[in-house]
Write a structure and sequence with these properties.
mainly alpha, single chain, about 55% helix, Glycosyltransferase, 24 helices, about 0% strand, about 600 residues, two-stranded antiparallel ribbon
């Protein structure tokens, strides 16, 4: 294996380095998305169907060409059909009836309707609305936009707007610091959708004349409307994401607000982000996230990469979430929002190798930013402290462990006051991880899942990340020894007979999940020993699957918004490089232990 391992590592590393651009960072490539494409088509149609006819036509053609054989659509071209995306694509095609290729269009619509009936039981608007609301529960971040698009597409029947749940857009007039207390029905990053969709629902189906909300909302719109422009980045795309930008655009257009100041920028973003094949990606890029992952996998950072990464740190209060300076977002584009995972990742990446600048400014600001973000339960949320209990705002284990590693890698170089905060915050963070660890030793992550695993969860990825982060610094690992040990026990139990890992022990194996697990097991070997046979078996599978570092098919394990899948070109390459590098270190350690035992 050593010779084969070295060859594969060399090939993988070389391939990864070849994807770094001239500015020293990795932009990556996100999967094309049927959901994004459907929302963009409808948004452009609502704004000006004639002017945008070529783009609408191209998007419609792509949707028909990428319909699954069962009649539905998945979030990526290799995803299984799901109700949300199929409803959006069906409604988008339904709105385009009467355009060229009527036979193929009608056929695609008929197949989609058959699939929806198989899932919902009928095409009755009331049944569809119940199914969508039931899928997302109390979180209206995605259920309301889906119903709105179905309404616009003409698939929710008569009185359709009454089936779109109203959103209290008037709450946006409150001070931002109050949002956590008032119980917002959408997650923090969806504020533009709350405003725009809430308003179009109000305009198209207002409360009765005697209802005070009718007059309150009408009076407050003049104050709230400008916020959409204030929240809009210079790129025009909210969060640099096609779905959110499309939902805001179609909502305003459907409310008679086609002249709203944010519409030109949003339309420019949508028209500029369509791909040559007629599709739209789920987001523009994950450049900062991908770059920090690549640096950590390589174990070194080049000066130009370091300078670029330092340049991504936010230096002022963020207009979107009111986040303090010091954090990093997932992208280098203006629509990014600072978050816990990317801030921790950047701090860790900037510790890689020897090219580390003085921590006097950026590191302390980043560490403090993370400390201030910690929730009262000890865990780390994604964007905002104490916003609420909706999925993308509550604490999550892998973000918590990621922050812990960032704190401890920089702890010795922090002022005494900051060190004291790290020690205190670490205790409550570890308590949180103990409480959220499941009986089998696993943790469920937030931003990654597996549509072939139980409940669409991904305990293998979540546990591998927590174990690897907690094992990444000796003093942290000592405090977390029992957590690491039980996490490793779960990962070993989830290994399949082939030697690989999937989202759980029953899900099909992937390069991504196998690679992150191998890295975690090797990283934690000093604290929770793993047999060489386990590592060899997993490594053999990974070498075969990647053709010794020359083939990296991506799997849709990433989550965006609520249960919205994507895959990223960089993930299997980065995590394979990281895994093979860790396996090499593991084998060196294992050989050393054999030598000591022989003596």
């Amino acid at each position: 294996m050593p010779d084969r391992l070295e060859i594969a590592l060399h090939h993988t590393r070389s391939h990864l380095l070849s994807l770094r651009n001239a500015d020293g960072y990795w932009a990556g490539e996100l999967s094309s998305s049927a959901l994004s494409t459907a929302t963009a088509v409808v948004a452009l149609h609502e704004v000006d169907a004639l002017r945008h006819a070529p783009l609408i036509e191209a998007g419609t053609h792509w949707l028909m060409a990428n319909q699954n054989t069962d009649g539905g659509w998945g979030d990526t071209t290799i995803s299984k059909s799901n109700l949300s995306t199929t409803l959006l694509c069906w409604s988008a095609l339904h709105k385009e009836q009467g355009r060229p290729r009527p036979d193929s269009l009608n056929s695609a619509i008929s197949q989609a309707e058959a699939w929806i009936i198989s899932q919902v039981g009928s095409l009755e608007p009331a049944d569809i609305a119940r199914a969508v609301i039931g899928r997302y529960g109390k979180d209206k971040t995605f259920s309301v936009p889906i119903l709105m698009l179905c309404c616009i597409g003409g698939t929710l029947g008569e009185n359709a707007w009454r089936r779109v749940l109203p959103l209290p857009f008037e709450l946006a007039a409150l001070p931002r610091s109050w949002f956590g207390a008032v119980g917002m029905p959408v997650v923090s990053y969806a504020l533009p959708a709350l405003i725009a969709i809430g308003y179009t629902r109000f305009k198209n189906a207002p409360p009765a004349w005697w209802n005070p909300l009718r007059w309150i909302r009408a009076l407050l719109w003049a104050r709230i409307s400008p916020m959409l422009k204030e929240l809009q980045p210079s790129s025009g795309g909210y969060l640099e994401a096609t779905p959110l930008t499309s939902f805001v655009t179609m909502a305003l257009a459907s409310a008679g607000e086609k002249e709203h100041p944010c519409i030109p920028g949003a339309v420019a973003f949508l028209t500029g982000s369509m791909r040559a094949d007629g599709s739209w990606p789920i987001d523009t890029n994950l450049a900062t996230w991908g770059t920090t992952l690549a640096v950590k996998a390589l174990g070194e950072i080049q000066p130009e990469t370091r300078d670029w990464l330092l340049g991504q740190q936010y230096q002022s209060v963020h207009a979107f979430t009111s986040a303090a300076p010091g954090g990093w977002a997932w992208t280098d584009l203006p629509g990014g929002v600072p978050d816990a995972d990317d801030t921790a990742g950047a701090l860790i990446a900037l510790k890689a190798g020897r090219a580390v600048p003085s921590p006097s400014g950026f590191a302390q600001a980043g560490i403090t930013w993370l400390l201030d973000l910690q929730n009262r339960d000890g865990g780390m949320p994604t964007f905002c402290r104490g916003w609420g209990t909706l999925p993308f705002d509550r604490s999550t284990p892998e973000l918590t462990a990621h922050a812990l590693l960032a704190w401890w890698l920089w702890e010795k170089e922090m002022p005494s006051e900051c060190q004291a905060r790290i020690h205190l915050s670490s205790k409550v963070a570890l308590t949180y991880l103990r409480k959220t660890q499941r009986a089998d030793g696993s943790w469920i992550p937030l931003w990654f899942g597996n549509e072939n695993a139980t409940g669409d969860d991904n305990p293998v990825y979540g546990t591998a990340m927590v174990v690897a982060y907690l094992s990444g610094e000796p003093r942290l690992a000592e405090q977390a020894a029992s957590l690491i040990g039980s996490g490793v026990t779960y990962l070993l139990s989830a290994q399949q007979t082939s030697g690989a890992w999937g989202g759980d022990s029953t899900a099909p194996a992937t390069i991504e999940e196998t690679a992150v697990t191998l890295h975690a097991l090797c990283q934690s070997a000093k604290y929770a020993p793993t047999s060489k046979a386990v590592i060899n078996l997993g490594t053999d599978w990974l070498l075969e699957a990647t053709q010794d570092g020359g083939h990296f098919p991506a799997s849709p394990i990433g989550l965006y918004f609520a249960r919205l899948w994507y895959h990223e070109q960089l993930y299997p390459i980065i995590w394979t490089a990281q895994a093979l590098r860790s396996v090499r270190r593991f084998l060196v350690l294992w050989i050393g232990l054999l030598s000591v035992a022989a003596i």
